[in-house]
Amino acid sequence: MRFLHTADWQLGMTRHFLAGDAQPRYSAARRDAVAGLGALAAEVGAEFVVVAGDVFEHNQLAPQVIGQSLEAMRAIGIPVYLLPGNHDPLDASSVFTGALFKAECPDNVIVLDRPGIHHVRPGVEIVAAPWRSKAPTTDLVAEVLDGIEAGQSPTTRVLVAHGGVDVLDPDRDKPSLIRLAALQHALTHGVVHYAALGDKHSLTQVGDSGRIWYSGSPEVTNFDDVESNPGHVLVVDIDEANAVSVTPHRVGHWRFVTLHRQVDNSRDIADLDMNLDLMTEKDRTVVRLALTGSLTVTDRAALDACLDRYGRLFAYLGMWERHTELAVIPADGEFTDLGIGGFAAAAVEELVATARGEDPDSAGDAQAALALLLRLTDRGAA
């Protein structure tokens, strides 16, 4: 038996930093990753797809998002089993029980809307642990496995569940955590043979059995300090002896990158420029900059010009404010050759004095004014 394990599609997700056409393109990429599972399934010969929770970003979605998402699932062409997770639980407002979803749900899409065993075909079963609220007070996996006996050979069972595992969470007393020891016991005794998990957006194997995996999100949702390895779907093989083989396939196209850089002079700015220039697929790349250093006004103007240029090329490029600390200090003689005199020269001298002052707000305004002056005179061109 071969199937695809995926999770955390979070269709309908928006990212506040994406402006212009970047957000629609990002949303389309997330739907394309879903629809593209059909080609992967055909290529590897997968029988069905399990989606281990968080199919949708939340339960209050625009009708267009629901309709387009269902069309993407229809395009997969083989059975797709959807598990409600913490983003889209089976509560009173569930998207899965809404009139639009029920009216337009394709025949190949099945919602795992009750805990317990779901029959896929003779010899293959799914054990589902759907979420019914955003904050369950128990281990849903332990609950659903309790009382299920080992399947009769040659029955193969796949657990589809969502949530954190206790060994990976710093707060191990959280009641909703999946208890690894109990899950491993169920795997060892043949109650289930593979655990398809969702909630963690990076590809992650749990334990050393090779039977417990987070597939991660098929398209990146957060920066690389949070998601180290997103963008995958798992091809899972379980043979007649219930031996398991898992093969990751990269399907994502977007990147969310964090760059930490020390910038103290024009050479550092040129290095940053080169690094940004070498990045490929800029229209599908989000860059968050954490910059520290001390610059002259001339160099700060050059940095701003550099960022302005690449800001037009990347899907997003901006400062990570709480990790950015740039001091701007006017250098001696930096404004002596502008070719101005009289009142204008006196105004520049006053701005320089203010830029070197101790009042951070006034200094910042003066530094910005001086940087603009340099850029208008082409001194700060990148």
Main traits of this protein?
six-stranded mixed β-sheet, 382 residues, elongated, alpha/beta, 2 domains, 10 helices
How many domains make up the 3D coordinates? 2
Give the C-level CATH assignment of the largest domain. Answer: Alpha Beta
Rounded mean pLDDT score: 91
Find the structural class using helix and strand composition.
Answer: alpha/beta
Q: Main β-sheet, in a few words? A: 6 strands, mixed
Instruction: Note the overall shape.
Output: elongated
In terms of quaternary structure, the protein is single chain
Count of individual beta strands? 16
The CATH architecture designation of the largest domain is 4-Layer Sandwich
CA-atom Rg in angstroms: 27 Å
> Secondary-structure element sequence?
EHHEHEHEEEHEHEEEEEEHEHEEHH
Helix content: 25-40%
Count every helix, treating DSSP H or I runs of 4 or more residues as helices: 10
**CATH H-level name of the largest domain... which superfamily?**
Metallo-dependent phosphatases
What fold name goes in the CATH topology slot of the largest domain? Purple Acid Phosphatase, chain A, domain 2
Low-confidence stretches: none
Distance between the termini: 57 Å
Organism: Mycobacterium sherrisii
Pfam families: Metallophos (PF00149)
Keywords: Exonuclease, Hydrolase, Nuclease
InterPro entries: Calcineurin-like_PHP, DNA_Repair-Maintenance_Comp, Metallo-depent_PP-like, Mre11_N, UCP033093_metalloPase
